[in-house]
Amino acid sequence: MSTELISYDLQGVLLPEHGLTADDLPSLASQLDSARDEVLADSKLWAAGGAVSAEKQPLDAGFHELPERLLAEYREQGAKSEVGRILATADELAAAVDRVVVLGIGGSYMGARALMEACCHPYHNELPRAARGDRPRISYEGNNVDNGAMQGLFDLLANETDCGWAINVISKSGGTLETASAFRILLAKLRDACGGDADQLAARVVPVTGTSGKLFDLATALGCREIFPVPDGVGGRFSVLSAVGLLPAAIMGLDIVQLLEGAAAMNEHFRTAKVGENVVLDYTGVCHLMEEKRGCDVRLLSTWGKRLEAVGLWYDQLLSESLGKQERGAMPLTVVNTRDLHSRGQQHQEGKRDKIITNVIIAECQSEAIAVGTSDFNQDGLNELADKTLPDILTAATRGTNQAYREDARPTADLLLPRLDEHVLGQMFQMLMLATVVEGRLIGINPYGQPGVEAYKKNMNAILRG
Ligand code: PA5
Fold first, then answer.
1. Closest-lying ligand 1 atom to the alpha carbon of residue 104
2. Which residues form the domain of 436?
3. Does 328 share its domain with 429?
4. Distance from the CA of 409 to the center of ligand 1, in angstroms?
5. Residue 55 is among the residues annotated as catalytic for this protein
6. Which of 31, 144, 329, 401 could form a disulfide with 323 if both were Cys (CB 3.0 to 4.6 A apart)?
7. 344 near 335, Cβ under 8 Å?
8. Is the distance from the beta carbon of residue 173 to the nearest atom of ligand 1 less than 6 Å?
9. Are both 286 and 174 inside the same structural domain?
10. Model confidence over 202-254: pLDDT tens digits?
11. Helix (H) or strand (E) holding 170
12. CATH of the domain at 247
């Protein structure tokens, strides 16, 4: 697998009227360097278990060096390490069942879905088992409260004979009602499917949770063979490179070592590259400057390819929950092109000048290019384009859209992904998590914790139990 890094091109932001000048980013360099130093110091402080000052609480900096820690442990301890145990559990599950239901919400769900959409076959669940690399189908629940969706899942599970399905339940707190209630409901179904066999039931449930709490206690009572941890100091939306994302990814058959290697490579780049050559600092700096100088507080992640949509939704959560505090924080919005050029495109071309657009472009088409082809029925006039392929059309759409934005002084930057694979995804997750915490330090908002999410939970529980 190639280890080429993601790059960032800000040329489309350097616009005379509505963008930045060539001096803007260099003039922010010392502030960006200080924010990076603070993030690096946070990470060291957290790892050393040092005292955290009141204004830094909570400090969930444990995500930062997690990839290096997991990789080192895997190299030293092999099968006994956490990565080794994740791989073994995923293989056992894959051999035993044809469907795994992943239960989780927010940070305990969005990373797994992003990985599946980006890296698995686009029709993974519809393929026959051999074409899925002998891996199970994956279904998601516990990420909402939707009776019809749950009933629909029951219908699917009814087709899995001989207890041919399993549950991977993920909740750091172990007390999130959406996930907990889905787990209770599906556990009862699974128990029936296993004919009440407690050993089989225990083998069919793999939890990922904190080191204590309701889910931990329940999993212990069930006798689950493995309970994978969400490490202390790793917040939900920063947990994709812990067992939270790694276990489902391994169940799907993805290369989780490459995922971690990609993230570690991004860490090294972040630590060492200077402003102007540092994808994390440059992306953060441009987004920040566009907000401060041009009032662009809508961050559009414009993905070119269907497979990146769930990565974008993962990022929407990361940015919203991390910086949407104290009546501040930019508004993230993910679009998928060319699909959304036919829905939101009008507004992005001619609407309010409140957006900084970051294109996410995959450089290499990894599947065989499909040509339009000639036809006897040329009423559509497409014989003229017979030799053009779908990647040719996508490239023309990308270039044409950016040209149109530029002609109207609509600022765009490009995030260039060399390919779409585990190494690049690991880089991208880490890049966006680092960018989010750097920006938090830059603007004085603690990127960790999500006190605002608690309000609805408190009210919902009071209504239900009152
Ligand atoms: O980022 C976060 O911390 C949240 O989105 C959580 O991941 C989400 O609320 C789910 O929490 P839990 O894993 O405790 O069930």
1. 15
2. 7-54+259-448
3. yes
4. 39
5. no
6. 329
7. yes
8. yes
9. no
10. 999 999 999 999 999 999 999 999 999 999 899 999 999 999 999 999 999 99
11. strand 165-171
12. 3.40.50.10490
